[in-house]
Specification:
By secondary structure, the protein is an alpha/beta fold. It has helices spanning 4-16, 24-37, 58-71, 83-90, 108-117, 133-139, 154-159, 198-211, 229-232, 243-252, 282-289, 318-330, 332-349, 352-362, and strands spanning 46-53, 72-77, 94-98, 121-126, 145-148, 165-167, 188-193, 216-220, 236-238, 253-258, 294-297, 313-315. Helices cover 41% and strands 16% of the residues.
């Protein structure tokens, strides 16, 4: 079987002669060639019926639902207030709850107890860990099985008495996050999309003079927190950007920056147990699934999923981030090659079909 390195190299070499004058088409052509060479894992049906209760994370929920429907006999989707009634009428083999936070009613754990009382197995997948440990600590023992995307929370939940705790990383909805041709309004040198947590504010405040002469998009909520607001104002889009629109900006940007949120208690978090964050966020997979070059801050678990310097780039300081931005803006071939490697790795290993298959094995 042709190796990833050789395949991407052959594809790039075959297209290099057509590059000049085609711009986005060159990048997109190789992205699509990679996607064709790396089909998503093939589903194999299990004779199971699952009631899935979404959190309201549009991209994640859609990815999970589509994957489950390809992997099991029947997947029913029900909102949290209707969970108990649906469980009683549908009698699924498993009730799978996404996160169980934010939009869930106050009596949701009482409903989970009643579902378990019917002899129906229950599971929760915490994907906001470790940022809400005040809440998840009260929930983890109420389910038969706990999944968490955060390595640091495994011993935490076990120590609280949860009998079955499994590490299940997040993944990407490949039907949504994929390579596509951007429109001119989506084209930027540098892009960051996410809320203005204080660590992110600090980084962009320090980078403000460096970014002034570049075409930059910084989008999300709370960016009024910037002390260098006036220098960055022309780059700011304050407010939520839907996932479908985020895909366009990822495809249109030369470099997408990924900065994880802080895990300290009080930094927009309810992590009163002070669990240190080790695992990567869904944005890591989503950027790479678009065939876009990414520079991310370092999380301990990143080496388990990507290879820094090969299919993803990392930074440990603002100075290093600036130096790498400058370098890769000037070295397009290296930037594109790393983006294509990241796309290959993501499709091979980080789709929701892969994750849901693993979840079913553990259940």
């Amino acid at each position: 079987m042709i190796s990833k390195v050789k395949a991407v190299g052959v594809i790039a070499e075959n297209n290099r002669g057509y590059r000049h004058g085609y711009g986005d088409g060159y990048r997109l052509g190789i992205c699509q060639a990679v996607e064709n060479r790396v089909p998503l894992p093939q589903p194999d049906k299990r004779d199971m019926k699952i009631l899935y209760v979404p959190q309201g994370f549009h991209a994640i929920d859609q990815g999970v639902i589509a994957a489950l429907r390809s992997l099991i006999r029947e997947c029913i989707v029900g909102e949290a207030p209707n969970m108990l009634q649906l469980a009683a009428t549908e009698r699924p083999d498993l009730v799978l709850v996404m996160n169980g936070l934010h939009v869930f009613p106050e009596n949701h754990l009482e409903d989970i107890a009643k579902v378990r009382g019917m002899g129906i197995q229950t599971a929760v997948w915490f994907v906001d860990d470790p940022y809400f440990t005040e809440d998840t600590a009260l929930m983890c023992t109420k389910y038969d099985i706990v999944f968490t995307h955060e390595l640091g929370c495994i011993p935490f939940y076990q120590g609280l008495g949860a009998s079955k705790v499994h590490y299940l990383p997040l993944a990407v909805n490949t039907a949504m996050f994929k390579s596509q041709r951007p429109e001119p309004r989506h084209k930027y040198d540098i892009c960051f999309i996410g809320n203005a947590f204080w660590n992110r504010v600090s980084i962009f405040d320090e980078m403000a003079p460096f970014l002034e002469d570049k075409k930059v998009l910084i989008a999300g909520g709370f960016w009024e927190r910037l002390t260098q607001f006036s220098k960055l104002e022309r780059s700011l889009h304050i407010g939520f950007i839907a996932p479908e629109e985020t895909v366009n900006y990822y495809n249109g940007s030369k470099i997408v920056i990924n900065i994880h949120r802080p895990d300290e208690y009080g930094q927009d978090n309810r992590n009163s147990y002070q669990i240190r964050a080790k695992s990567i966020n869904p944005r890591t997979y989503e950027i790479s699934a678009c065939g876009t070059f990414q520079i991310t801050d370092v999380r301990e678990d990143i080496n388990s999923h990507y290879r820094p310097g090969y299919d993803i780039e990392t930074f440990g300081s603002v100075r290093e981030l600036q130096d790498k931005i400058s370098y890769y803006l000037q070295h397009e071939d290296e930037r594109l090659a790393m983006a294509w490697h990241g796309l290959w790795t993501t499709r091979m290993e980080h789709s929701f079909i892969s994750r849901m298959r693993r979840l079913l094995e553990l259940v």
